């Protein structure tokens, strides 16, 4: 959520957000330019079958362009697997910060003989540079010879040349085009609260991985495992040579090259590197509703009631910070959200098959007598100033202390608070947790701000539906004395960060749109319990918090898959958490942005369960746009309507068009949940993305490379929403392939050309089935996913030109981490014969159906009437043959049409 006064901060920093950064090599310090830097020379090169090591020595006088050049470095090259090559350049003394293993566990070095690897590393000793080549076609993927390596105490610069006009994707989190601009493009990574998700700016998370797609020459990925603030430039030199340049304000060069060569193979190889996404409960695919500004528990209940009355299925109800007492974590407002009524709300939801999720923030109210703070303080979980006092900031509750998620007691403290507050026996028995503001966002904008002057953010009574019920939120009492506690922290050990740096200012400016490094966040001079500095670990704060929250949820309900939604992320966050795209606005542009963000996050950043605030967060939604967005969101993995406190209510029951659109959208989404759940199962176990950009399925069709308004939901359904403001027509691209209209079943030949559809009403969304696929559906939708599971299956077969198709279906119980009884089917269609085989095991618990009642085969225009079996019917209008029957999913079977 966003803070009203942040708008002021945004205005104050607008200048720095739009000022075009000077081309890097023109930036000079004391008359020195990066071009004067001497580079390095390699020596003592040693090779084994699967690795190379060398010493790198500064090859001349230090240039010290942004800080001090390091004289002695080491190079380590590992052929980790056939498809993954690791290149690491680090300081000889191993003091420079390296990302903690517990935050990003490293993949194993599989010691693949270099002869067996898809990629080749070539070393040039003097001046030092290296080149990575795809062996199969001699394609040079990475070549650093265009500019000398610079490795300083507060700046590391490495450039690779690229082909002209390259197809580069990834590098989240941003709201920029899906296919990134490659001239004068600068991508900052410094996690920041970012209301309105401005373009060309750093947002909430950092994922320094890009995909480079070269058509029939293959796709590869490059991941830089460096969490420091950085700016990545995509640009051309004066002589027209294309390059990508990393500029970090610390850390080391830790590159993973992923060979592909199909796009989805790069996704898998990235999952092998940073970890596979957690699997989510089946119910997480339901429809979610939230709003900041649901004033009390009655209003929350009324929203739930109004959804039922409108006949729109609601699976999960959420409450924003409104529920807290004075915006303090682990409290409920005794008048507006009394614990007794909260418990009743949750038990009612649960009895109807619905779920409940609440928010937590990292800033903990710094207040005597506030027990969660006092316990945390006793346990030494907060950041400390040099004098041992708590490092303070300002957040929703007022003056706050900040947990150091790496301190030894923090996990226990957080898990205990969660277990108590959210106890099933006498607390709020919630089903998931949303962690917000964890970049971390500090309402204190700079280091001159005194956190003790801030009295918190009382609810905005003017916007509340009921006057006079607003109680002032208690602030910081006058007689408060900071409770000091001395600390000893390790310092400057291995990988802890070089001593003697300026921890507030890096002379190389990564261009944070919120100003200085410590602007609106936890100050970067803080020391973590393990001796590392916030200067180096800033981008890991939300990542660490969300992972600690996952562990706490697991401790609270052992064995069940936690749903933890986090605003701030780092590469590999998906292992334990998922993300929504932050505080967007209710605009057509952000409706479009949600598509490109989803494309990159699911298919490249390996965080599949993502989505935007449907109908937009800031500003007022309107009926038509919200109707379109209801349909759009239904084909994105995480589907939640959410709005800001000062926005109009935008629940789907608010307008006639949104009621119609939402019913259709949710009905369709629910019938397809098993299909999506199967795709998620494959992403979480094999890394294959559940959302496919068009070029993933048509990698040689250059018309697809820039498409950012269409996507494949799973690998069979092509979604092509209307994306023009206030329009009822859409121009969509159909690759050269056979498709079927999802709604009518009619066959359409894609010509590798655009098709314009007119008169797409506000409650319609074009969806096409790619030929060659089989889609498992439920015969009917239901009011909750629990009810849905009682419905029988229908398999929709979409044969390709050869009369063949295949699909798959995964079924389990839906919520447990370890599933003992699962069904995993391969379904094939071959010219009139359906074969269903695979692994059988899920028995269908609690009245759930595991029965197929119908096969629907599309595109059978040429069928001979009378040649069909008795249970079959043919619809000449659409060309679909339907075979009715009853097949239990507990043994292999065949069906002949
Ligand atoms: C629920 O619906 C009633 C009747 O239309 C309306 O008066 C009320 O404002 C709605 N409540 C909420 C929270 O949307
Ligand atoms: C859904 O329908 C079932 C069966 O009729 C009912 O028990 C349940 O309360 C309903 N849930 C909701 C949220 O309406
Ligand atoms: C952890 O908490 C215990 C109290 O539960 C305290 O005695 C101990 O000092 C704390 N450890 C640290 C490192 O602060
Ligand atoms: C960070 O800098 C501030 C301002 O100089 C100082 O008060 C604080 O003690 C410093 N923190 C640490 C951990 O050194
Ligand atoms: C940024 O830091 C510089 C150097 O410490 C300081 O002069 C400037 O006031 C800071 N700007 C903001 C907006 O805090
Ligand atoms: C399809 O239309 C878009 C604009 O809507 C255009 O950018 C693109 O080049 C067109 N593609 C083809 C293959 O004509
Ligand atoms: C992606 C996008 O459209 N961002 C816009 C969001 O709103 C801010 C403030 O109005 C603009 O500056 C961004 O460009």
Annotated CATH topology of the domain at 34-274: Immunoglobulin-like
Give a count of the beta strands, DSSP E runs of length 2 or more.
Answer: 46
Q: Quickly count the helices.
A: 14
What is the spatial order of strands in the main beta sheet? 3-4-5-6-18-15-14-12
Contiguous runs where pLDDT drops below 50 for at least 5 residues:
2-26, 458-488
What compounds are bound to the protein? 2-acetamido-2-deoxy-beta-D-glucopyranose
Region (Disordered): 454-493
Domain Glycoside hydrolase family 31 TIM barrel: 278-679
Domain Glycosyl hydrolase family 31 C-terminal: 687-775
Organism: Karstenula rhodostoma CBS 690.94
Explain this structure.
- This protein is α+β, with helices and mostly antiparallel strands.
- Among the domains are: 34-274, glycosyl hydrolase (family 31) (Immunoglobulin-like, Sandwich); 689-896, Sandwich (Immunoglobulin-like), CATH 2.60.40.
- 18% of the residues lie in helices and 25% in strands.
- The protein has 14 helices and 46 strands.
- The strands form 10 sheets. The protein has an 8-stranded antiparallel sheet. Strands 27-26-25-21-20-19-29-28 form an 8-stranded parallel sheet.
- It is globular, with a radius of gyration of 28 Å.
- The protein starts with 5 loop residues before the first helix and ends with a strand.
- The protein binds 2-acetamido-2-deoxy-beta-D-glucopyranose (7 copies).
- Its EC number is 3.2.1.20.
- It holds the Pfam family Gal_mutarotas_2.
- GO terms for molecular function: alpha-1,4-glucosidase activity; carbohydrate binding.
């Amino acid at each position: 959520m966003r803070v009203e006064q942040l708008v002021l901060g945004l205005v104050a920093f607008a200048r720095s957000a739009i000022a075009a950064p000077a081309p890097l090599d023109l930036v000079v310090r004391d008359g020195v330019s990066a071009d004067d830097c001497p580079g390095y020379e390699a020596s003592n090169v040693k090779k084994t079958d699967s690795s190379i090591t060398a010493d790198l020595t500064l090859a001349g006088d230090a240039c010290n362009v942004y800080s001090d050049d390091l004289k002695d470095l080491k190079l380590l090259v590992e052929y980790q697997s056939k498809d993954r090559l690791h290149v690491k350049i680090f300081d000889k003394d191993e003091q420079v910060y390296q990302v903690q293993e517990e935050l990003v566990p490293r993949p194993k070095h599989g010691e693949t003989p270099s002869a067996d690897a898809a990629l080749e590393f070539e070393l040039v000793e003097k001046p030092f540079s290296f080149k990575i080549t795809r062996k199969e076609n001699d394609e040079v993927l990475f070549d650093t010879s265009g500019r000398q390596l610079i490795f300083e105490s507060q700046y590391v610069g490495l450039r690779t040349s690229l082909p002209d006009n390259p197809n580069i994707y990834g590098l989240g989190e941003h709201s920029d085009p899906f296919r990134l601009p490659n001239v004068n493009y600068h991508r900052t990574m410094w996690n920041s609260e970012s209301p309105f998700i401005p373009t060309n700016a750093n947002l909430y998370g950092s994922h320094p991985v890009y995909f480079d797609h070269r058509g029939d020459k293959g796709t590869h990925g490059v991941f830089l495992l460096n969490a420091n603030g950085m700016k990545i430039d995509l640009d051309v030199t004066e002589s027209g040579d294309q390059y990508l340049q990393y500029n970090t304000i610390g850390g080391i060069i830790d590159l993973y090259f992923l060979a592909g060569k199909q796009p989805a193979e790069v996704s898998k190889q990235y999952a092998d590197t940073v970890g596979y996404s957690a699997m989510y409960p089946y119910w997480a695919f339901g429809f979610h509703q939230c709003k900041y500004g649901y004033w009390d528990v009655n209003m929350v209940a009324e929203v739930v009631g109004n959804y039922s009355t409108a006949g729109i299925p609601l699976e999960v109800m959420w409450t924003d910070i409104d529920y807290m007492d004075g915006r303090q974590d682990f409290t409920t407002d005794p008048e507006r959200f009394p614990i007794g009524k909260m418990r009743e709300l949750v038990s009612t939801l649960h009895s109807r098959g619905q779920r409940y999720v609440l928010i937590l923030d990292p800033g903990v109210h710094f207040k005597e007598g506030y027990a969660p703070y006092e316990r945390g303080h006793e346990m030494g979980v907060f950041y400390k100033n040099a004098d041992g006092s708590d490092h303070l900031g300002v957040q929703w509750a007022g003056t706050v202390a900040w947990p150091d998620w790496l301190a030894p007691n923090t996990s226990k403290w957080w898990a205990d608070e969660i277990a108590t507050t959210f106890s099933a026996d006498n607390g709020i028995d919630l089903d998931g947790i949303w962690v917000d503001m964890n970049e971390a966002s500090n309402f204190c904008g700079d280091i001159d701000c005194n956190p003790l002057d801030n009295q918190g953010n009382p609810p905005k009574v003017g916007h509340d539906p009921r006057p006079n019920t607003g109680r002032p939120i208690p602030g910081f009492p006058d007689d408060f004395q900071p409770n000091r506690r001395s600390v000893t922290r390790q310092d400057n050990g291995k990988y802890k960060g070089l001593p003697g740096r300026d921890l507030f200012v890096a002379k190389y400016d990564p261009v944070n749109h919120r100003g200085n490094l410590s602007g609106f966040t936890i100050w970067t001079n803080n020391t973590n319990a393990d001796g590392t500095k916030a200067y180096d670990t800033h981008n890991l704060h939300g990542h660490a918090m969300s992972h600690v929250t996952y562990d706490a949820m697991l401790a609270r309900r052992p064995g069940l898959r936690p749903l933890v939604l986090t605003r701030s992320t780092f590469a590999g966050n998906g292992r334990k958490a998922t993300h929504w795209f932050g505080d967007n606005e209710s605009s057509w542009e952000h409706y479009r942005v949600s598509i490109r963000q989803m494309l990159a996050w699911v298919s490249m950043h390996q965080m599949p369960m993502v989505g935007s605030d449907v109908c937009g967060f800031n500003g007022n939604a309107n009926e038509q746009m919200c109707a379109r967005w209801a349909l759009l969101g239904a084909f994105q993995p995480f589907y939640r309507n959410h709005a800001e406190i000062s926005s109009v209510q935008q629940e789907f029951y608010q307008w006639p068009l949104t009621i119609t659109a939402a019913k259709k959208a949710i009905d369709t989404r629910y019938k397809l949940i098993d299909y999506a759940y199967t795709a998620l199962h494959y992403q979480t176990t094999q890394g294959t993305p559940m959302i496919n950009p068009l070029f993933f399925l048509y990698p040689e069709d250059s018309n697809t490379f820039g498409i950012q308004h269409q996507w494949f939901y799973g690998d069979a359904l092509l979604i092509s929403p209307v994306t023009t403001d206030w329009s009822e027509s859409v121009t969509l691209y159909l690759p050269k392939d056979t498709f079927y209209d999802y709604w009518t079943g009619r066959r359409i030949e894609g010509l590798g050309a655009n098709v314009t559809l007119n008169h797409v009403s506000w409650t319609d969304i074009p969806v096409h089935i790619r030929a060659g696929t089989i889609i498992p559906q439920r015969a009917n939708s239901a009011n909750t996913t629990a009810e849905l599971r009682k419905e029988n299956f229908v398999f929709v077969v979409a044969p390709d030109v050869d009369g063949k198709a295949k699909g798959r279906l995964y079924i389990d119980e839906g919520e447990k981490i370890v599933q003992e009884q699962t069904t995993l089917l391969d379904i094939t269609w071959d010219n009139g014969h359906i074969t269903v085989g695979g692994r059988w095991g899920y028995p269908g618990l609690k009245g759930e159906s595991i029965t197929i009642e119908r096969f629907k085969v599309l595109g059978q225009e040429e069928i001979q009437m009378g040649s069909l079996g008795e249970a079959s019917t043919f619809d000449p209008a659409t060309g679909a043959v339907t075979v009715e029957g009853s097949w239990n999913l507990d043994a292999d079977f065949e069906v002949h049409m």
